[in-house]
UniProtKB/TrEMBL annotation:
Keywords for this protein: Membrane, Transmembrane, Transmembrane helix
Residue ranges crossing the lipid bilayer per the database entry: 226-246, 281-303, 340-358
Name listed for the protein in its UniProt record: DUF2628 domain-containing protein
Entries under SUPFAM superfamilies matching the protein: FYVE/PHD zinc finger
Annotated coiled-coil segments of the chain: none
Signal peptide: none
Chain intervals with Low complexity compositional bias: 106-130
Region (Disordered) location: 102-137
Alphabetical list of InterPro entries matching this protein: DUF2628, RING_finger_1_prok, Znf_FYVE_PHD
Amino acid sequence: MDYKGIKCPVCDKPFTENDDIVVCPVCGAPYHRGCYKEKGVCIFTDLHESGKTWAPPVPPDAPNTASELKDKECPNCGTLNAHSALFCNICGTSLTGAPDEHRNTGYNTQQNPNNANNPNGYNNYNNPYGSYPPPQNNANYQSRGFGGVPFAFDPMGGANPAEFVADNVTYGDVSKVVQQNTAYYLSVFRNIKSFGRSKFNFSAFLFSGGWLLYRKQYKAGIITTTIMFLLYIANLMLSCFVVNPITTHVIDNAGVSSSDLSYVQLANLLSQYLMDNPSQYLLFCLPLLCSALMLGIMIFVGVRANRMYLNHCVHTVQEIKSVSNTETDLSAEYTARGGVNVVVTFCLLACYMILRWIPLFLT
């Protein structure tokens, strides 16, 4: 049995690899040889009398970081971690102050005086603030072979946590609201503030109101989701109660089966019918109009999503700072109001699946 780390019951000092250890022949309790000679006998007489054997103490349970207060801020990326955390759960930086090689000193532009004269936010290696220098210039660098990572992951996306993005709001503050996928959003926010350029957000384009609710932009998300829901229901109802009856009427008047018609033949029959009945033309095109409006909203949200999210993060930080006076209150508010809402994602997914099944009951 390996007794390393277990404390001697006499001197209360943990055993090491080089210690001379003796074991009681009756109960199996370990001692330093000198401690056992000092006592002369095993001190666990109760185990001898009951016929039981000695067992090592049960190690304490690891703290549950999920229930802890997140008040330990990462010096590298600004993420709030659990109180007992030793390393950042986003970038892996040491939270105990050592070793220093784990700390991304590139964020501190004061450490390189040559950066002070560069107004574009780039260091001497032509990288944004927050990036690591080339590894070959580091005396402690060792090649990791094919298994190593050829670049340093920057959770701040090249943004300086101490740089202000708005009045009394830094990129570090914004990262506490974003929490998930900070590398992407902070990089985009930096381009918006520095160059006025944004990116098309495909997640927001595909999910629109769902993405807004997922990112806790509840007001815009509820409005967008409601509009998209009404347009979808209108499209569904018009298709079931207007387009389908017109199509069935045209096929019946032609005296043929729908299975015998090709798509081109059906399109020609519908075109001829709508030309003869102009009043039906607008009704027939209404579902297409609803689909076009839905697509327009999706494109608008995809184009404006990142700017909307930046404004949301800035306003959230300003509101939190205006009502919170202590670091504990700030940490609690960032945890509650920042990040994403996963529950709403599953709720919207369930609603979407229900809506997809509605046509089966209407036809």
